[in-house]
Amino acid sequence: MKAVRWTDLVEVGQVLSTHGYDGTLKITIDAPYRKFITENGWPDDLPYALFLKLRGDMVPLMIQSVAGDDPLLISWKNLTDENSASTYISSLVYLHVHAITEEVQTEEPGPLEGYACYDMEVGRLGIVQEYLPDEYGDKLRLRIDDDGNEVTIPFPEEYIEAIDEETAVITLRLPEGLWELMIG
Description:
Blueprint: E1 9-18, E2 25-29, H1 31-38, E3 49-54, E4 57-68, E5 72-76, H2 82-86, E6 92-96, E7 116-119, E8 123-132, E9 139-143, E10 150-154, E11 160-164, E12 169-172, H3 178-183
Parallel strand pairs: 7-12
Antiparallel strand pairs: 1-2, 1-6, 2-5, 3-4, 3-6, 4-5, 7-8, 8-9, 9-10, 11-12
């Protein structure tokens, strides 16, 4: 198999926990992608594997077996003990684009979804997962790290310095101490 690049991968889920002592992981997979992992029809020229993001690196794990519906219980050929498996808890899960053998219908991203969010003082805050309009004050749900940790922050107009649609970047000026309080 030739080298795999991040551009060859699609984020499809996240590791929830270990399951048992044999390295099996409990993984939630987004519904439109589940069938590509659980049904026969895996491309012959592609190893039966998922890729997990661990400390910024792409780690291929060879699938031994798949059980369950949601979450899936996946055991691995190259991960066989609970201690090693526990390092992957909260890791994002990726599927090779060539394993996706038909067009996938996914929800259209909401407004601002996927935008990088920065504060004038703090710097990078995270990636917008969801814009939450609310009569009492709009909010942004941000993924703040590669482990899938999220925080919801207030998003009133007076905090907004700029929204650059071309670069998909939101720049805010949060009140002093608010970010530290939110991630506290």
